[in-house]
Specification:
22% of the residues lie in helices and 37% in strands. With 143 residues, it is of the alpha+beta class.
């Protein structure tokens, strides 16, 4: 006597159509989601964002304050087409904007802000032509 039930071919054949049906439904749902996102313009809301830059801050002591120099060492080029302005901002209120007449900004170009107190956070802020902005680099003056 055998404890194993006899093999039934009908049971094996029923698995393949179920797997195929589930796979086809998953593909249809995925395709509908991608087409829906494209048709409704979901991707259009994603801005280009700030350019990827390599920036170094230099702090030059001037009495009790610092002159902060943000030097671009590499990365994407800042042009009139992809940028509204680039501003070096200190939390203490000082700021300096790179004039558009200086564009394109590339490796070796710098922006300077003077009269920054010790221990002040500074950041290089990029603003795009659509008004969106982002911080490209951050620093802090020595104490």
């Amino acid at each position: 006597m055998s404890a194993t039930p006899p093999h039934d071919d009908r049971r094996d054949r029923a698995v393949t159509p179920v797997i195929a049906t589930v796979t086809m439904v998953a593909i249809a749902v995925l395709l509908a989601a991608v087409l829906g996102a494209a048709m409704l313009g979901f991707s259009g809301g994603l801005g280009a964002g700030p350019p990827a830059l390599s920036v170094e801050f230099t702090y030059i002591q001037d009495g009790n304050e610092y002159e902060v120099v943000a030097t671009i060492y590499g990365g994407q080029t800042i042009t009139k087409q992809n940028t509204e302005n680039v501003t070096l901002v200190a939390e203490s209120g000082q700021q300096e904007t790179a004039l558009k007449t200086r564009y394109p900004l590339t490796g070796g170009d710098d922006i300077i802000v003077k009269g920054v107190p010790p221990g002040t956070n500074v950041r290089l802020v990029w603003t795009g032509p659509d008004g969106g902005s982002g911080v490209v680099a951050r620093g802090r003056t020595p104490f």
